Amino acid sequence: MLLFVITGVLLCSQQSASQLVSCYMEFDYQTGQCSRFLSAEVEQSDCCLNPAYGFINEAGKCQSCGSAQWSAWSSWSSCTVSCLEGVRQRRRTCYGIGECDGKERLQTAPCSELECCPVEGGWSEWSPWQPCSVTCESGVKVRQRSCSNPPPICGGSCEGRSTETYACYTNMVCPTHGSWSSWGSWSSCSSFCKMEGSQKLPIKHRTQTCSNPPPSSNPPGKDCPGPGVETVECPELPFCPVDGSWGSWRSSGGCSVTCGLGLRQQTRECNNPAPKHGGMPCPGEETQHQVCNTHQHCPIDGRWSEWSAWSDCVRHGRKIECKKLPGMQRRTRTCEGREYEGRFCDGDIVQNQACYYVRRCRLEKGNWAEWSPWGFCHPPCGSNAEKTRTKVCNTTYPTDYPMLVGLNKDEPVTFWGTPLPLCGAGDEVTKNIDQKDLCRHVPDCDDDGEY
Length: 451
Description:
Blueprint: H1 2-17, E1 20-28, E2 33-43, H2 44-47, E3 54-56, E4 62-64, E5 69-70, E6 85-91, E7 94-95, E8 106-112, E9 138-144, E10 163-169, E11 203-207, E12 229-233, E13 250-251, E14 261-267, E15 287-293, E16 303-304, E17 327-332, E18 335-336, E19 350-357, E20 364-368, E21 386-391, E22 393-396, E23 404-405, E24 411-416, E25 433-438
Parallel strand pairs: 19-24
Antiparallel strand pairs: 1-2, 1-3, 3-4, 5-7, 6-8, 9-10, 11-12, 13-14, 14-15, 16-18, 17-19, 20-22, 21-25, 23-24
């Protein structure tokens, strides 16, 4: 009896743990949109048997059934100012179940659209008025000025108009000649179909009026040339139509998938009767789908983790620190997330390479690199955002170390570890130089403080 009660409690808790959702067959990690709607009111656990599927959660947003992944970075926003220095921003979104690696959702970088700001110019004096534009009735006179006193700077302009006009009258009346208006639309054909075997075709016509403008009477203008009506036959009219009607539904195969949720399709044909002579096609769809559940979880392929850091450069039984003796080092990675007979990761789990141990060794004298580009603004919003650039001491590695080792002298070798930076006077150890500056015109942070 106690076992029956415990089993019932477990079943109830499992049913309440999974909620009913709207299930979709595709989820786009770039846009966060669900597509290819499958069914409403599906258990979330059933929908997510396939990690490629997505669902609409209680907040009305689309969510992925797969593991958490970052979307691609959005395009950079416009610069916050149109001239001199400002900043631009871009964002990305975490989609899927769980948390994405890293927490940076917003990046802010310095920008400059123009190296200078526009300065407005000044107008020259007005030119003399030009003659009247017509020889009869009314026209206009025009005068002009130029933006050159002084000229604008850096894309600036002058405020106001460069041209002024005023009306002028010649005291002469012009005759108005008639002109046709545009043709009106064609009328409907006198019939929408033709009788089979008849030689007489329906007709259509269109008209135009002598009103654009009408001819004047004093002084007299000319009438419009030609007729105001055009009539033509309606070519290639179809025979009178027969509308189509659907036949019976028929099943056309099993479930569309072998794992997760899929669709079972039924089809019908528009052949009872088929449409003829331009008749209306059958209304509605020729296919319909019903949701089918395989109750099988889809395979999840393995994904490589990031490579581990290279191990120390060592050689069995010998000390090789700061010596012209090669050693070996290795790094590893793991195949993660494989479930339900998904594919194993392709490639090696271990990498080995030959190396010289130069960590904290005194090598040849180095040289200072150029300043690096300015980095991202941190924090990415608010008036306290700062940017940083760095000047580093470049290491000069020995040129007399063999760069191919091994039994056949065909194995490449690399220098491992960071030597002591020697860019100062004598053998003095030097440090990298950092330079900081405030980012300008950075937008304020959101009210909730999120970046």
